[in-house]
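Contributing: when you submit paired examples, paste them exactly as shown. First protein:
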Amino acid sequence: MFSGYIFDVEGTLVDSVPQNLRSLQEALEEAGIDVTYEALQLYSGLDGNQTLQIIAPDLDDALRAQILHGQAQIYESKYLHTVKAFRGVRDVFETLTRRGGKLALATDCKGPELKHYLSLLGIDEFIGATACGDDVEHGKPDPRIVGVALTKLGLTGPEAVMIGDTPCDAEAGFGAGTAAAGVLTGGFSVEALRGAGCSAVAKEVSQLLTALENATPLRPEAAPIAIRNKSGRA
């Protein structure tokens, strides 16, 4: 097993992916851009600015920033209160801590969203470090947010595993030198997560410990993330 366990939050610990995607879809509609929910799902977990560069390449920097700001407002006002914690999260965190593991969060979210998620989860006593959107400029798959979590935990990459619900989480972990594990609660298939390098895949966090015990180390395939995502939705 590992000394450190770094968890993504949205889609991994809390059930928020549909709400995030709908809020982005609505923000795009307000800007006169129609994109299907299914198309947005392909890029779930990817840094928001990068997502817009892929799905609407003609947008300039100012309009992308405007759309992302609009998404944040829509999400907070319309969807945030509907988010629920996945079952069994506290039990998993308690078990890993009891076994001597150091636990951290590495999430692109911040501010009211992160505060609300933590209030739902009730895991503050087990978290040794948090790296969030306030700590880095770029979201996953950029590995720096995972690197911040490692530094705060006082661990090296090979001592830890990054756990998330998207290929982006796995790529961010590998970029920081960690292993990777995945859960299916973000809408990606087992094949997509394993293709990104996840050595263990569980249906949800409550089943993660068993999956980690039976893990086989993997490295990610060389295919670009956008291509893997298109063939790997759950």
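Second protein:
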Amino acid sequence: MPHRIPVVFFVLFFSLSGCGQDYSLSPPVDSEEITVTVKLPKKLKAETMWVMYRSTKCKRVSYGASGQRHERDGHHSVYKELQRQGQSDLYQIKLPKDGGGACKWHLANVTFGINYAAPTRFGKDVTSGAEAGVVVIFDHNNSPRGGADTEVDGDLTIKKDYYPWIDEEFLGPYKKTISLVGEGSIYRSYEALTAQQVYFEPVLHSDFIVYSAGPKVKKKGNYTVFTYPDGSVVADGRGGPDFQKLQSIRLAAESKK
């Protein structure tokens, strides 16, 4: 007899007890605001910000195969663009902490990134690769990208170094991308429960480009080859550039000036 594969059905829905059917945001006019400011280098652009609100009143409910009930705080996502401040290099947005509405939403976390504004300046076939960015958590819940790497008291100021990374891949469809290399994970996460101001300043070291080329033949021991700004070549199985090596190369070069 053929094997029978059990199928489990999950029913997901919002339980809006006490909320009617309205779970939209409606921030009060006197809501306290959090200001997010990004100081953006000319060659970079700010990606759309993902803003998440949570509600302890309007629960997200799921039922398992045996009918067991699982409750979690409801969540509501909105997407916002940071606005340039005059002719400056500052981009800003103000977010109400109190999302209001029948569900009594509160600001939970924001996710925002940066990337090259014009990848084709590196070649007509170059496309955008991995962006770099920041997650800021304003309550005690994880963000969609997990928990915080760093916890801070009060306002949050972030100033990080980034390097251009041009990568060519030959296995599968050919592609050539430009990405930003920073310290740690692509998105750094911060918990800032009492912040009213969030300031992010990416420092782009555009003269220190790292190049990489993936293998053309899939074979054990064939690794991506990284060529660093000082001319050194490394192929050690690493999945991305060595940030600390880039830092050392730049600092050594700057100390000779």
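If you have annotations for the second protein, write them as plain sentences, like these:
The first strand starts at residue 11 and ends at 15.
The chain has one helix and 19 strands.
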